[in-house]
Design brief:
The complex is a heterodimer of chains A (200) and B (285). Chain A has 200 residues and is mainly alpha-helical. Chain A has 13 helices and no strands. Chain B contains ten helices and eight strands. With 285 residues, chain B is α/β, with parallel strands linked by helices. In chain B, strands 1-2-3-4-5-6-7-8 form an eight-stranded parallel sheet, with helices on both faces. Classes of the chains: A mainly alpha (200), B alpha/beta (285).
Chain lengths: 200, 285
């Protein structure tokens, strides 16, 4: 993720909040939900699953501070899991985006399963980043990719498709394409590379 | 007539209600956290309810171009259940969120020690988070409960201008009025207040600090009693501007004290989704 682009006042506010969280990690429980209001946000709302929003970046920085303040990975995992559990959709998305940076290894794979159970394109997309590419099991990962085709998440947002796509995923996508065609509906363009590579 | 209903439990209402409310002029609502009719038996049940208030319900309202806000609290009735009371420890996480415009509904149901403890603690949270408090007054022993309510607000150091004392009637209005708190009136088909009694109170003491709500929920109630009250005001000689003040500007002024009103509702996109759920019941074409 690129560095947060904030105006100086917001950058200062964020730096202060980060210091607060490093010194007293439990403060993230009220700073994280309030981050868009207290620090900075991209105006308006956007359902775009790949949108680059300032409040996402601000929250990821707060999670970096949490990682600094909680060196014990089990304690850190518990705090991160609670932020997700009690978060709204925006907060959950930021947790998912930050997972590869938090040194949690496989401890919070259950959050990916939760996000992939939703039909929220912003959460599904955020769940299938580098953390999922490393830690999510094959069955869940394939279902996640198929879900992207269903709910309209572009596959360019899924980390590691080229490396992880296997014959079973190609079979699933081919069956999905057959079903779409049988119903007289178009097959998403994103599915085509996975179909072609199977046929070759 | 533009209407801000400052107390309505939309989770219990249908999309038909949302449409009728929009047609009647409702453009903004506050949904206070309360009980569900069916008692909760665990903290987890509150968490899912709070998630719905800051999530799916806000989305549903937006599909009818109605701005939805909520208040968060452990309600007085369930403050008596030791299985529910620990939700108090989770409230700060929710009181920090956008669109949460007050702590509420807090207050008394049966005036127990447990209720008072939860009430006092939540008033302290309102002070800590810079939020107003929406206070429910009891159905039984209303006058005594209202009197004790005002004592607790003073003790917590919450400014009276940040307290909305709700479900008032002819017996309790002056007590709250004299204290300087905001006055909430729930207009019901059969119980609580009706539009004509409401108009009589407005004629007697004026429009300052008065909020009128439908308090519509899962029981016999009507989400359009705000509109009926506006019509009764006009019929008895109040001006359009008077009606606008009571039904729009007063609630905006009260809840704007939270700094978290979200009155810009984007244009409706009928195919929009919340967490992938549209209100259309259709598969993506």
């Amino acid at each position: 993720m690129r560095p947060t682009t904030l105006d100086p006042a917001a950058e200062q506010a964020l730096a202060e909040r980060c210091r607060e969280v490093v010194a007293d990690p439990a403060r993230i429980r009220v700073r994280f939900p309030a981050a868009a209001r207290e620090i900075a946000r991209t105006p308006g709302t956007s359902p775009a699953p790949g949108g680059d929003r300032i409040e996402d970046r601000v929250r990821v920085r707060l999670l970096d501070a949490l990682a600094q303040g909680l060196p014990d990975p089990d304690a850190r995992a518990a705090e991160v899991r609670d932020l997700y559990r009690y978060g709204d959709a925006d907060e959950r998305r930021a947790v998912l985006l930050a997972l590869p940076r938090l040194g949690l290894h496989g401890r919070v794979v259950d959050l990916l399963h939760d996000a992939l159970r939703t039909n929220d394109p912003r959460l599904v997309a955020a769940a299938l980043g580098p953390y999922a590419a490393t830690y999510l099991d094959d069955e869940a990962w394939r279902q996640g990719v198929l879900k992207c085709l269903f709910v309209g998440v572009p596959l360019r947002l899924v980390d590691g498709v080229d490396q992880r796509a296997d014959d079973e995923l190609r079979r699933m996508v081919a069956d999905y394409a057959d079903e779409r065609r049988a119903a007289g509906r178009p097959v998403p363009d994103d599915a085509l590379p996975l179909l072609t590579s199977r046929e070759t | 007539m533009r209407i801000f209903d400052p107390h309505i439990h939309m989770s219990s209402r249908t999309t038909d209600d949302y449409q009728a409310m929009y047609d009647a002029g409702v453009r903004a609502v506050v949904e206070p956290a309360f009980w569900l009719g069916q008692p909760r038996s665990s903290v987890e049940s509150f968490v899912d309810y709070f998630d719905s208030l800051v999530g799916f319900e806000r989305f549903r309202a937006s599909q009818f171009q109605i701005a939805h806000h909520c208040t968060i609290a452990l309600n007085p009735k369930e403050a008596n259940d030791p299985r529910c009371a620990p939700v108090l420890d989770l409230l700060p996480r929710y009181l920090a969120k956008d669109g949460v415009v007050a702590v509420g509904e807090v207050g008394f149901d049966s005036m127990t020690a447990e209720e008072e403890k939860a009430f006092a603690r939540q008033l302290e949270m309102a002070v800590e988070f810079g939020l107003p408090a929406l206070v429910h007054t009891p159905h039984r022993d209303k006058l005594a409960g209202t009197r004790r309510t005002l004592e607790l607000v003073r003790a917590a150091g919450l400014p009276m201008a940040h307290a909305l004392v709700d479900h008032l009637n002819e017996v309790t209005v002056d007590l709250v009025d004299d204290a300087g708190a905001w006055l909430g009136f729930s207009i019901y088909p059969d119980t609580k207040m009706d539009p004509d009694r409401m108009v009589a109170i407005l004629q007697r003491r004026g429009l300052d600090r008065v909020l009128v709500n439908s308090a519509a929920d899962w029981g016999r109630s009507d989400p359009l009693t705000t509109r009926r009250t506006g019509e009764a005001m006009l019929a008895s000689g109040f001006s359009e501007d008077d009606v606008d003040r009571v039904l729009w500007r007063n609630p905006v002024e009260f809840f704007a004290q939270s700094g978290r009103l979200l009155l810009d509702v984007p244009d409706v996109d009928a195919g929009a989704t919340f967490a992938g759920n549209s209100l259309l019941r259709g598969e993506r074409a």
